[in-house]
Amino acid sequence: MISSRVKAFMMAGSLRFLLLSLWVLLGLLVTEIGGSHLKPVLSGPSEAYMRSEVQFDCAVPGWSSPLTYELRKDAGDLIAAENNVKVSFSLQVTEGSEGKYYCRLSAGGPTSNTIHFQAVVPVLGARLTSDPDPPMVYEGQNLVLRCLVRKGTHLSFIWYHNKQEVNSSSELYRLSGDTLTVDGVSEMHAGTYSCTAQNQMTVNPRFSSSRNVHVIVKKHISAPTLSFTVFSNGSSLTANISCRSTRGSPPVTFSVLLDGLELDVKRVDSLESWFVLPVSVGVDMGAARCKAQTDTQQLMSDPVRLHVVPVGGAVRVTVTYLHDAGGTMTAAQLKCIPDRGTFPMFSWRLNHSSLPPEGDAHMVIRHGQILILTDISAGFYRCWARDSFNDSSVWVESEDIFIQKSDLPATRMEVIALVFCGFLLIVIIGGSIFMFWRIERGNNTCKHHRNQDVIKSEMIAMDIPVAVSSEPQPVEINTVIMEFEA
């Protein structure tokens, strides 16, 4: 009886101890769950392409018992919940998938770190646009290129000029997002441009490249110049007028004006245009000018009198001797100058024999006006001139001029300089001596004049009359005693 009571009492104590132990364990568990020791950690991607599947994992490091985890987004929107030691949440990426994700233990437990997730649209359909369009600009103007895509997000851009990647730090371009800007283009900016757009993805980035765009940089034209030649057309004479710019980019519209009246207009794909106009010998047709015009410019040439003067009057020849570095005569240049004539042609004679345009010892330039003797042959030279446009015009000729090669070397500049310096030194020395002589002579003259003044003063003093008095005047006698040694 007693033993049964003892056993019952012992069993009751064991039960109370077991219940107390469970209560303590449950208290510890609740403490740990509600404390900071159970902070979950969320892991997963920060970016993914649209329509792909991503996975986020949530777990408490070092915890081996199942817990209930909740995956939440932005302001606390519940995405999914799952109970396990470590849970994984799978998501299908859509446009609404972007945001900030975190996981939390159930019943208001602690929250994990945050992952900012981006839903990336794959890039597709890159193309280039230009301003101006078409991409044809003049020097100094601005050029703007944009790299547009049909679709795609989170993009970066790479630019190419003539197949070379454009450096973002280059001073020739300004890069900003999908735009390339050139401030004040020059010739070096001409060529082909393209761009490549790519998704900013750490893994598996996608690309889309545009087609090439050819940029043309046009030069501004220079002011045109007008010149003309004439040719005979049977019984009449025609002027062939040239309007020409030395630089620029065609096309150019040229027009010719006579005394301000526009006569003809031509648009050409070059920098020169020709116009024809009837003229008469000896008649001043007026002032002719050229006008050159492009999309951005309109320039005029200087006026040129459209006056064809026949060759006539006296003809003279000027001679210039050419020397080498040692001062030895090596060549002679003869120039034929008629008094008048707009379009002369020339012919040369040596000892009354015609000289061909070219030879072993001579050559002619400037339409025959200048004869250069490379090996001087002594003799009499003469120039003939007439109108180039009229084969029946009369030749006018110069007088004979004798040319002979001299064996004496020309006076060198060093010798001339030395002689000049010596002459200058003599002048300076002579001038100094002359000035010194003039100064000395002036001093002597001054002394002579002063002496004469003293003498005259003494003479004037001696001539002063002495007043005569009837009263006796006392006389002062000075006695001087002189001693001499024997």
UniProtKB/TrEMBL annotation:
Keywords carried by this UniProt record: Disulfide bond, Membrane, Signal, Transmembrane, Transmembrane helix
Domain Ig-like: from-to ranges: 122-214
Protein origin, superkingdom: Eukaryota
Native species: Cirrhinus molitorella
Protein known as: Ig-like domain-containing protein
Keyword Transmembrane: yes
Matches recorded under InterPro entries: Ig-like_dom (IPR007110), Ig-like_dom_sf (IPR036179), Ig-like_fold (IPR013783), Ig_Fc_receptor (IPR050488), Ig_sub (IPR003599), Ig_sub2 (IPR003598)
Name of one Pfam family that matches: Ig_3
Spans traversing the lipid bilayer: 415-437
